[in-house]
Amino acid sequence: MANFRTLDHVDVKGKRVLVRVDLNVPIDNGVVADATRIERVAPALTELADKGAKVILLSHFGRPKGRDTKNSLKPVAAEVARVIKRPVKFADDCVGAAAEDAVAAMKQGDILCLENTRFHAGEEKNDKAFVAALARLGDIWVNDAFSAAHRAHASTEGLGHVLPAYAGRSMQAELDALGKALEHPQRPVAAIVGGAKISTKLDLLGNLLSQVDALIIGGAMANTFLLALGKSVGKSLAEHDLLKTAQNILAKAKAAKKEIVLPIDAVVAEKFEANAPSRTVSVDAVGPNEMILDIGPKSIEQVVSVLARCKTLVWNGPFGAFEMEPFDTGTVEVAEAAAELTKAGKLVTVAGGGDTVAALNAAGAADRFTYVSTAGGAFLEWLEGKALPGVEVLRLK
C-alpha cells in the first residue's frame, strides 16, 4: 500500500469523517439477507469511532429514480448497528438541512448513516454542486467501497478532489490482495476464467494473457474455444460468431509461449436440469444432442496439476453449471485443491466476481483462499487492466 493514503496517515480524533461504504446489500421482506459487505467494512467503522472520529456513512442502494422509499437505507443502517454492536443514527437525506443537523448533533465516536446518495441525480452525474453539498458535512473522506470504485460518482470519486482522501481498511485489504495477485506476483501465475461468454470477457482475456503464465478456461466459454479447435460440442452453450476471436487468442498465447488449459473431458447431459442423466466423455466424443455442463475427472486432474506448480492464482468464473448437482463437481474439486495449496502456504489465491464467490462458498472453500473480493464489476475492470476512478483518487501524488 506504499502508493496509497490509508488511515495510518491521518489523525481522525474530533474530525467529521465521510466514509463511502457499499451498503448495496440484498434485502428480503425488509431484512438484510446477506451482510457480507457490512461485515467487511465493520473494522474500519469501529476503528474510526474508537479513535474519536464522527463517522458519517455514505452509500447508494439499488437504482432508484429519484426518492423512492423502497430504496431507503434505513433498514440497512439497523443491520450495520447489529453487525458492529453499537448504535447507528440515521438521517433521512444525505445533503441539506436534515443531513447537516444530524451531523451537527454528533459527538466523538458517534456513527451516522445518511440516506441513499442516489436519491439525488447529482450522485451519478458527479455534479460539482452535489459534491460540494456532501463535502460540507465532512473534514476528510475515506473510501472503503472498492466494489463501487469503478464508477466516477460524487461519493465514490468526486469527494476525493475536494477533501483529504484516504483508503479505508477493506479498500486497503483489497488493493493489497490485488497487487499481490497481478502487479507484483510470485510466479508462475495461473488465472482461471470461467463463465458463459467470451464476448463479455474479451478485455479480461487479453490483459490476463499478457500477465499470467497459464490461462485456464472453464465454463461455457471453454466450449467456444473447443469449437474453434474443430471439436463438436453438440447443443452446448457456445458463441458461434466468435470462433475467429477464440482462434486469435489461442494463436497469441502460442506466440507468447503462454499455456492455455482447456478441458480434455466433460460431463454431458441432454437436459439442463439438476440430476439429469449424464455421462463423462472425451471432448472429442460429445454427442449431437448433448450439452457440456461440467469438466470431467481428467480435466480436474490437469487443472490441479497446473495449480500445483504455480505460486499465484487469480480466479473469476466457475467451471460448469455449479448451481446444479452433479455439475458442480469440477468447480468444487478445483476450489478444494486450491484451498489446500493455500493452506499449505504453496499458493496465493485471489478470487472475485458474483458467481465465483457463490461457487467458492458452495464448495466451502472461500474462507481458505488468500482473499475473496466481494466486488463484481470493479474486480473485473481491475483484472482487465483498467484504471478505477475511486482508486486513482487515493494515490499518493
General description of the model:
This protein is α/β, with parallel strands linked by helices. The protein has two domains: 7-169, Phosphoglycerate kinase, N-terminal domain (Rossmann fold, 3-Layer(aba) Sandwich); 176-383, Phosphoglycerate kinase, N-terminal domain (Rossmann fold), CATH 3.40.50. It has helices spanning 36-50, 74-84, 96-104, 121-125, 128-135, 169-183, 202-211, 219-228, 243-255, 297-308, 329-343, 354-362, 377-383, 389-392; strands spanning 16-20, 27-28, 31-32, 54-58, 89-91, 111-114, 140-143, 165-167, 189-193, 214-217, 259-261, 265-269, 278-282, 291-295, 312-316, 348-352, 371-373. Helix 8 crosses helix 9 and helix 10 (297-308) packs parallel to helix 11 (329-343). The radius of gyration is 23 Å and the shape is elongated. It starts with 15 loop residues before the first strand and ends in a 5-residue tail after the last helix.
CATH topology of the largest domain: Rossmann fold
Helix-strand makeup class: alpha/beta
Strand content: 15-25%
Measure the end-to-end span. Answer: 14 Å
Low-confidence stretches: none
Integer tally of domains: 2
CATH architecture of the largest domain: 3-Layer(aba) Sandwich
Helix content: 25-40%
Report a brief summary of the structure.
Helices cover 36% and strands 17% of the residues.
Question: What topology emerges from the helices and strands here?
Answer:
Layout: E1 16-20, E2 27-28, E3 31-32, H1 36-50, E4 54-58, H2 74-84, E5 89-91, H3 96-104, E6 111-114, H4 121-125, H5 128-135, E7 140-143, E8 165-167, H6 169-183, E9 189-193, H7 202-211, E10 214-217, H8 219-228, H9 243-255, E11 259-261, E12 265-269, E13 278-282, E14 291-295, H10 297-308, E15 312-316, H11 329-343, E16 348-352, H12 354-362, E17 371-373, H13 377-383, H14 389-392
Helix pairs in contact: 1-2, 8-9, 10-11
